[in-house]
Design goal:
The complex is a heterodimer of chains A (776) and B (220).
Chain A lengths: L7 E2 L5 H8 L10 H4 L1 H14 L3 E3 L12 H19 L5 E6 L13 H15 L5 E7 L2 H14 L4 E5 L13 H9 L5 E5 L4 H12 L6 E4 L6 E3 L2 E3 L4 H13 L4 E2 L7 H13 L12 E3 L4 E3 L4 E7 L5 H8 L3 H13 L4 E4 L8 H15 L4 E4 L3 H10 L5 E6 L2 H13 L3 E5 L10 H18 L6 E4 L11 H13 L4 E5 L10 H15 L3 E4 L10 H7 L5 H11 L15 H6 L3 H12 L4 H21 L5 H21 L2 H5 L2 E7 L7 H10 L4 E5 L6 H11 L3 E5 L3 H17 L4 E4 L5 H6 L3 E2 L3 H10 L2
Parallel strand pairs in A: 1-10, 2-3, 3-4, 4-5, 5-6, 6-7, 7-10, 13-14, 13-20, 14-15, 15-16, 16-17, 17-18, 18-19, 19-20, 21-22, 21-23, 23-24, 24-25
Antiparallel strand pairs in A: 8-9, 11-12
Chain B lengths: L7 H12 L9 H17 L3 E7 L1 E3 L4 E3 L5 E2 L2 H7 L4 E8 L2 H13 L1 H29 L20 H8 L2 H5 L2 E2 L5 E2 L3 E8 L7 H4 L13
Antiparallel strand pairs in B: 1-5, 2-3, 3-4, 5-8, 6-7
The chains are: A alpha/beta (776), B alpha+beta (220).
Chain lengths: 776, 220
């Protein structure tokens, strides 16, 4: 058995030595040598073993289903392992199954989570635990590193080491900081975590501290022989073996006990390192226990009260519910961005709604959110399957909202938190329900903490929620919540509270909410789950007395709240301008205010026909005659959208439902969709309900949407010649079953091409509107 | 320190030229504000990165072989472009994944600003390519360089993209990958071929598929 807490020497560069010894041209897959020329592979392994390596990596870095077919894969894997195993026989050395990146994009335009997982699973299953350890290395994308790690942990009993490559600033080329790597991968039940490639040992030294401070796992490094330059067509590394050994000895002083070399290093580097290493005593850089959550791009330390945005939640929000049912991701994602702009630190994500497949929807939303926001996510669900799926696809250290004190919850949620390295919110409720007694809530908290620790979840990752109950429903509720919070804080864990429930049933809720947050923060609250727009608002002293359950305070508060003139910020209305002008000139806020004004004396439909449509038509005309340009066209569409959304709130249902349906998508393979988004924004203002399927949309999904929504028109876009052909296929598939007009557009599409493939060509968004108007 | 910063003024000049057809009446405060916001965002989120490799060309029937590799640059246009050069550079330059993300974010919550960002990021990547070109020029002791020539120009196939990325090690160095349909991510990424020892004279516009409604944004 390998003991990774001991000092171990890994091997050095493999590829460059193989290329040199086998004299292969650039681009030749070196894994082929496992069969073509096993002696060469053997010679490299033996040289490293003779130099003192305790672990050698199999020659399988690029061995995956995208580079080889199944038969080749099996042969090459078996051969690679057997070569390495023969080399270590009788020696105090081990063999590691080496796994590198797949070379594929994971997500839009590439392969999905499951396909990537299966590709890694195949590599691991083929090796069948015949090596002593698994090494996942040279990862530059944290998402891919997580998928590979999951595949290793779930399909093998062997210890797992994982390393990523970083730039000098400690951020990978995919934008993943080393701290996020430490938190996400380091919390997943692996055995050692490391840094390899890209940097020399000198540059890597600076990153070791950052890695070690954020993980308690053994750390390993495999630096390059310095930072390379290209000279006469050859990559040249400038660090000498002696310098290399000196720097790696310094790493040992910082507590790195496992070291090897990457590009540019040779057996001589390993031998020299071994010599230097024996002279140095291993030091230690301490792991700093902190409460940290992170996305793939950003980490947040909970060292002061943090704001968790609560807006991504359908409860009581009709528009949100509609968006969820119709999969209008744009609406939902906009809630995320708005909260990020309003300075939320973390986003709560909840899609619980009757009739929604939560497992599917939550995972899909989590994937989409990762593409547009860097804020860490708090996964909020009671559906255990949905929770696991969301945690799997989330590249980050999430917070689970929540576990509670019931046996069932503790038994199902905590193992998931442990497996995926998530933090967890513990609700102080159990089989007996919510208690009004502070001590009862504290006892439940203690039970949750104990269970967490039993399963290996650190106190730093526990956030106890002492439950916010509406003060109006029971005098003293706030005091109980705050009292329990104060006591629980002393247990060495963090705390969380949903704020807004406190004011349920009362007027001027913001006032009470703001004051309650203030009191809770004073009592030791760490995670304030609120609408971020509350930040900066101050509660009144009347609200404070109400929350502290003082005599007569409820009446005084209501009197105060109802006598207050509700101060709405006055929009800067310019009466000289009409709604027509506001839309024409693309002024969103003005359009909204003017629309509200007009609604006082006009029917919604007359506002549409008198102001909005004429303005949009004028914009269209002027755009065509080049008096206006695309940026103005977009701005006008957005202003009109604001006005329409005001009107829709007061329109009767039939008026809204009369809309014709236009399904739009950017075709399979294509990820450039700004043009499609512009068409969507403009067309939506002409009485169409636009169902946007997004980008990289497969034929099946298009066909499914056509069946589901019965659109009167379908719109498809492509930017590249390579993807334009996919439009042709989609048209064929749809037209076989549905006789509907299909508009096509995008940079490379021409009128001739569109006609040839059975579509109707639209040059741009304006042209699409014209075409739609002309359709029978 | 960043090697390149995008200035408000140059961004305005570019945007007014490309998107507003130089009509100064359309250059309102709102447009100016959006340009400035985009410039700030781009300067904040861009992570410039480039990598390159150079080869000796061998002009063959099959195309221009980059010696030491197994890769031929195919097509008559690239051949003509490089004829007379004794060295060929391949390079890849990118603005990084952060720029993709902010464009996506704004497409969701403010499409108009998303559009400005997209247009100006297009300008910024070209500006960065100019910088990369100057780095190559310096490395070659200020010898003459050809224009940069990219896949898809004339009959130089788009398929070559994957080989260029492989030869400059773009995935490992910059995180640049190809989608299944051959698009590069991050989206604001350019690969190009430059020949050494020959003056720039090929007009890229003439070979460009979009030259019909081009407004001269490539500065050619």
């Amino acid at each position: 058995m390998i003991d990774l807490s001991k000092e171990l020497l890994l091997d050095g560069a493999m590829g460059s030595l193989l290329m040199e010894r086998a004299n292969t041209p650039i681009g030749h897959r070196l894994e082929r040598l496992n069969i073509e020329n096993p002696d060469i592979v053997k010679s490299v392994h033996n040289d490293y073993l003779n130099a003192g390596s305790n672990i050698i990596f199999t020659n399988t870095f690029g061995l995956n289903c995208y580079n080889f077919d199944n038969i080749q894969l099996e042969k090459l894997s078996t051969s690679a392992i057997s070569i390495a195993k023969n080399c270590v026989e009788g020696k105090d050395a081990f063999v590691a199954l080496d796994i590198g990146p797949l070379g594929k994009i994971i997500g839009d335009g590439g392969i999905d989570f499951d396909e990537a997982y299966n590709a890694y699973k195949q590599i691991i299953t083929l090796a069948n635990d015949k090596t002593d350890i698994i090494v996942i290395e040279t990862m530059t994308c944290l998402t891919e590193a997580k998928i590979a790690t999951l595949a290793a942990l779930e399909n093998s009993k062997l210890p797992v080491m994982v390393s990523m490559s970083f730039e000098e600033n400690g951020i990978s080329v995919f934008g993943n900081p080393i701290e996020c790597f430490a938190k996400v991968i380091g919390s997943m039940g692996i055995d050692a975590i490391g840094i390899n490639c890209t940097l020399g040992p000198k540059e890597m030294l600076k990153l070791i501290k950052r890695l070690k401070e954020n993980t308690d796992k053994p750390v390993f490094i495999k630096p390059n022989a310095g930072m390379p330059t290209v000279e006469n067509g050859k990559t040249v590394y400038h660090t000498t073996k002696n310098e290399f050994a000196t720097f790696t000895a310094q790493a040992k002083k910082m507590g790195v006990k496992i070291v090897g070399g990457c590009c540019g290093t040779t057996p001589k580097f390993i031998a020299e390192t071994k010599k230097e290493w024996t002279k140095v005593v291993a030091g230690n850089t301490k792991y700093r226990k902190r409460s940290i959550v992170c996305s793939a791009y950003k980490y947040v330390e909970i060292d002061a009260p943090k704001i968790v945005g609560e807006r991504i939640n359908p409860t009581g929000k009709k528009a949100f519910q509609k968006a969820l049912i119709e999969e209008d991701w744009g609406y939902i994602l906009a809630q995320a961005i708005e909260q990020e702009v309003a300075k939320a630190d973390i986003l709560d994500v909840n899609v619980g709604l009757n009739g929604i497949d939560e497992e599917y929807t939550l995972a899909k939303l989590v994937k989409k959110l990762q593409g547009i926001t860097t804020l860490p996510l708090q996964i909020d669900t009671t559906d255990i399957k949905a929770l696991e799926k969301a945690l799997r696809v989330y590249t980050g250290k999430a917070i689970i909202n929540s576990v509670n004190g019931t046996k069932e919850s503790l038994d199902t949620v905590l193992p998931l938190a442990k497996k995926y390295g998530a933090a967890v919110i513990g609700l102080t409720i159990d089989e007996k329900g919510v208690s009004n007694d502070i001590n009862e809530r504290v006892n439940i908290a203690k039970k949750i903490i104990e269970k967490c620790q039993e399963i290996g979840i650190d106190k730093e990752d526990i956030y106890i929620d002492t439950l916010t109950m509406a003060e109006a429903s029971g005098k003293g509720n706030a005091l109980c919540t705050l009292g329990a919070l104060k006591d629980i804080k002393k247990l060495g864990v963090k705390t969380a509270l949903g704020i807004s429930n406190i004011s349920f049933g009362m007027p001027s809720r913001m006032d009470i909410n703001a004051m309650f947050m203030e009191l809770a923060i004073d009592a030791g609250l760490d995670l304030c789950i609120i609408n971020p727009n509350l930040i900066g608002i101050k509660g009144s002293k009347f609200a404070k007395d109400f929350l502290l359950a003082k005599d007569g305070a409820t009446e005084k508060y209501i009197e105060y709240a109802t006598s207050q003139v509700i101060k709405q910020p006055k929009a800067q209305l310019s009466y000289k301008k009409t709604l027509f002008d506001a839309v024409y000139s693309g002024q969103k806020e003005l359009a909204k205010s003017l629309c509200s004004e007009l609604l006082k004396e006009n029917e919604p439909l007359s506002i549409v026909s008198k102001y909005l449509i004429p303005a949009l038509d004028k914009v269209g005309e002027d755009y065509q005659s080049k008096k206006l340009f695309l940026p103005q066209l977009i701005a006008s569409a957005q202003a009109a959208k604001e006005a329409f959304s005001k009107l829709e709130k007061v329109m009767v249902n039939e008026q809204v439902q009369q809309k014709k349906v236009f399904v739009i998508a950017t075709i399979k393979g294509d990820v450039h969709d700004i043009g499609k988004n512009i068409v969507k924004a403009v067309v939506a203002n002409y009485g169409y309900k636009v169902i946007d399927l997004g980008k990289d949309v497969d034929y099946d999904e298009i066909l499914k949407a056509v069946k589901k929504y019965y659109p009167c028109v379908l719109g498809l876009s492509a930017l590249m010649t390579t993807t334009a052909v996919n439009i042709q296929k989609a048209i064929k598939i749809v037209k076989e079953k549905h006789d509907i007009p299909i508009l096509v557009g995008g940079a490379v599409i021409t009128k001739e091409y569109a006609t040839k493939i059975g579509g109707i060509y639209c040059k741009d968004a304006n042209d699409a509107v014209k075409t739609l108007k002309a359709l029978p | 320190m960043k090697v390149i910063e995008l200035g408000y003024e140059e961004a305005e000049v570019y945007f007014i030229g490309k998107e507003l057809n130089n009509d100064m009446e359309l250059f309102t405060e709102d447009v100016q504000e959006k340009i400035e916001k985009s410039v700030d965002l781009l300067n904040g989120y861009t992570v410039f990165g480039h990598c390159s490799a150079h080869f000796t060309p061998e002009f063959t029937e099959k195309g221009v072989l980059l010696k030491g590799s197994d890769f031929y640059l195919q097509g008559n246009d690239i051949k003509a472009h490089l004829l007379g050069c004794d060295k060929v550079y391949l390079f890849c330059a990118t603005l990084g994944y952060g720029v993709d993300r902010i464009i996506r974010s704004f497409e969701v919550c403010d499409l108009s600003l998303g559009y400005y960002l997209d247009v100006l990021a297009g300008y910024l990547i070209e500006k960065y390519c100019d910088y990369v070109e100057s780095v190559i020029g310096k490395a070659e002791s200020e010898q003459d360089l050809t224009e940069r020539f990219s896949c898809g120009y004339g009959d130089f196939p788009l398929d070559a993209q994957k080989d260029i990325l492989r030869l400059v090690n773009a995935e490992k160095e910059l995180g640049v990958k190809l989608t299944e349909s051959g698009m590069m991510t991050p989206q604001k990424t350019v690969t190009a071929v430059i020949g050494i020892g020959k003056k720039a004279k090929v007009q890229r516009c003439k070979l460009c598929v979009k030259n019909d409604d081009c407004k001269g944004q490539c500065n050619d």
